[in-house]
Amino acid sequence: MAENQGGSADGKAGAASGAPAGVLTAQQLEELQQTILGTMIKWQRRILRGAEVLSSPLEIEVGATSYETLHKRDRVELRLYKSTAKQPLATPTILVYALVNRYYMMDLQADRSMFKVFLDAGLDMYVIDWGYPTRGDKFLTMTDYIEDYIDHMVDEVRRRTGQPQVNLMGICQGGTFSAIYAALHPEKIRNLVTIVAPIDFDTDTGLLNVWARRMNVDQMVDTFGNIPGEFLNVGFLMLNPVRLMFDKYVSFLENLDDANFVANFLRMEKWIFDSPDQVGEAFRQFLKDLYQQNKLVKGELEIGGRKVDLKNITMPVLNAFAEADHLVPPACSRRFTELTSSKDTEVLAYPTGHIGMFTSRRSQTEYTPRMAAWLAERSGGRAAAADGPVEASGKGARRRGGKE
Amino acid sequence: MATEEKSTEKKDVFQGVTDAFKSWSDTQRSWLQSTLDGVTKTAERFKAVGGTDSLRAVTELWGKSFDEGLQRLRQFTPQGPAGDVFDKMVSAQSAYLRAMQWWVDALIQQRSGGSMEPQALVDLWSRSYREFLTSIVVPPFAEPMKGWLGALPGGMPSLPAGDLAQSFAQAGQQWMGFVTRMGERTSQVLRGEVKPDAARELYDSWLRGYEETLGRIFHLPSVGPARQLIDKHMRGVDASVKYQAALADFYGKMVQPGMEALHELAAKTQELAKGPMTPETFEKFYQLLLKTVEQRFGMLFRSPPFLAALEHTMHASLEFHSQMNSLLEEQLKGTPIVTRRELDDVLRELHELRREVRSLNKG
User: Which residue in A62, A149, A174, B124 is deepest, having the highest Cβ count within 10 Å?
Assistant: First the structure.
């Protein structure tokens, strides 16, 4: 039986046949029957094929690019993704990701990898991997993250490369940290790139901002210690439960027979729910000082006993944000460059969502190449020929992926 | 002489409990009234399919199986004095069963055109229920209760039994009032005399009732060597009740937008139904469903009442979590397991030391 053979071709109901409105004619009933049968057969085939797909050896490992672990401080690692270009940029780039979720979202698979684009463009990417905090980390504050871990890793990269300055690229919350760091240590930063980074928290356009203002953060941290990743996940899903908890899985079922779709879906699913716990004290400060009191923009934020003044940011700044971002709405990011003293700024607003910024097709072909080109123009030229990509073997080298 | 006084106090406590049981029966009237309304309403719907016989058959079947279950239960009667109490409790259940069967029979008769007016039926039931409580339910507990009170080491020196009885009676009185109000409100809901937000009123009424009665009991000061543990248990129960109540309110907030979304969807679907039924029709319906629900809930999630409920639920949830932690820590005291508080003290020390060392190294 041919699929979808039922249904009225002319799209008209029984009015023409003289049947009362709302009552199906015998012919229409037969059409409906055929449609239902056709659909059922299609679904049965899909499920059978889906069972084959799910039971086949699916390639759902995340992280397509090899790296080398260069250095470790407590739980935090410095990882190098070496440029694949013959002549990499002279200035190394340090990536600071958010404490929420894991950075391999930027390198989910070979054909959806921001890293690949950056590495091909000549960037040596040094990634600060925050790892999975435990109870032993619960007293770490934002000062520890910014003035100890980031500062230490920046110095480590400067020491290893012999470069006096580095490019700092911050993603989401990591962008906030990067902006704060750049304001505190402008002499160490050559270029600052912030991607979907919340800076101005005083907006009602994002549901997360509205909810965060009503949270009793003290009670939360005092009760939980570290905030469980699962707890945050529930909050994120609640932002749009219909799409995130229902439609997404309907879509999965509809494409169950497509091995490529299934593998992509499972990789993304792995990333979404790979959620480290949030260190209690840093979470407390981030929510109270930024989400609730917007101290960074007001110039009232204190890190390590020093006031953070965004006007100290004088280096070139590239600020990219997503116009349909439901986690970090454009209003949180848009004004950032205006708050700095930099004379060389660029703002990129892309018609995508928070995740689409990193994993969409346009991210591969348009957004990321643009950012790479911006950095290339400002990184002091190219270094001598590189050694080529780091192999996934040897001391410290490994593929990224699950919890380590 | 002192012993006699103590004995009188204990008797007062027992009397307070017995009185509470007695007055409890008086408050059943409103509940019964609402039950009657509900049953009458249901019976109306049964009329068309001759429901009376079915209802009677079901009641008889239920009664028979319940009674058989009780008889089987008697086989497990323990030896000694506890066996006597057990036997009386089973007898009480049996009597309760008979009372229930009588009630259903009376309802059926009334609905079938019997002479008894509903109000008279409720009155009769109230009287019989009171009799049932005081003469059948209370006696099996009377002797053991006296025994338990007598066995308490040193009685209750820190909290006079008279005060306890009084507190209990006061709380009980408020509880009775609360039950009456709830019953009246339930009656109105069943009769369709109130608006949909009656659920909210019921919730508020329930919570107020709880806070004025049981909630207060859970906050009474505890006495004795296990005072701390009892306190934590009591606070834990209270936090649990409040959390459940907050959760119910939180979910309750979802009902109205959900209903509105369905109404809106129904209206939009009428247009869709005018065309032919194809797989694309279902796809359109599905997209309509998503969009409608998404819009409604998107609005809800930003609304002040929802934000207040979210805040309240989070608070109640964390409070409950915190009480459970506290209780667990109390219980871990006697074990060789380190508690979170103890571990945190060490971790804080380590963190500060590490910070100091790094600061010195940097300097």
Answer: A174
The label of the residue with tokens 């965060």 reads: A212
Q: Which amino acid is at A93?
A: T
**Long-range contacts of the stretch B120-129 (C-beta < 8 A, 24+):** B121/B36, B122/B29, B122/B32, B122/B33, B122/B36, B123/B29, B125/B28, B125/B32, B126/B25, B126/B26, B126/B28, B126/B29, B126/B32, B128/B99, B128/B102, B129/B25, B129/B28, B129/B32, B129/B99
Cα B129 to Cα B107, B306, B354, distances in angstroms: 15, 42, 71
Residue found by looking up tokens 């739980």 in the block: A75
Task: Give yes or no for A211 touching B (CB within 8 A).
Answer: yes
Q: At what angle do helices B227-273 and B279-302 cross, to 10 degrees?
A: 140
The fraction of chain B above a pLDDT of 90, given in percent, is: 10
From the centroid of its chain, how far is CA A322? Answer: 11
Report chain A residues whose CB lies below 8 A from the CB of B314.
Answer: 215-216, 220
CB contact under 8 A, A7 and B277: yes
Q: Out of A172, A196, A282, A327, which one is annotated catalytic? A: A172
Q: What residue in A sits closest to B353 (Cα-Cα)?
A: A139
CB A206 within 8 A of CB A326: yes
Helix, strand, coil shares of chain B, percent, nearest 5, are 85, 0, 15
Distance of CA A24 to the CA centre of its chain: 50
Which two three-digit tokens encode residue A43? 């679904």
Catalytic residue list contains A172: yes
Q: Does A384 touch chain B (CB under 8 A)?
A: no
Pick from A144, A219, A240: CB nearest B315 = A219
Count of residues in chain A:
404
Predicted complex ipTM: 0.79
Ranges of each domain in chain A: 66-204+295-399
Residue B233 has pLDDT above 80, yes or no: yes
* A209-A210-A215 Cα angle (round to 5): 90
Query: Residue A318: its pLDDT value, please?
Result: 98
Find, among B237, B229, B241, the residue nearest to B327 by Cα. B229
Cβ-contact B70, B97 below 8 angstroms: yes
- CA-to-CA distance for A7 and B312, rounded, in angstroms? 51
The whole-angstrom separation of Cα A91 and Cα A105 is: 24
Contact B25, B31 (CB under 8 A): no
pLDDT in tens, B49-99: 444 555 666 667 667 767 777 776 676 666 666 666 667 667 767 777 776
Is residue A40 predicted with pLDDT exceeding 50?
A: yes
* DSSP-derived pairing of the beta strands A107-109 and A112-113: antiparallel
- Shortest CB distance from B348 goes to which of A12, A139, A211? A139
Phi, psi of A127 (to 5 degrees): -105, 130
Q: How far is B249 from chain A (nearest CA, A)?
A: 17
DSSP one-letter string for A348-362 = EEESS-TTHHHHSHH
The class level of CATH for A66-204+295-399 reads alpha beta
For residue A361, give both structure tokens.
């097709």
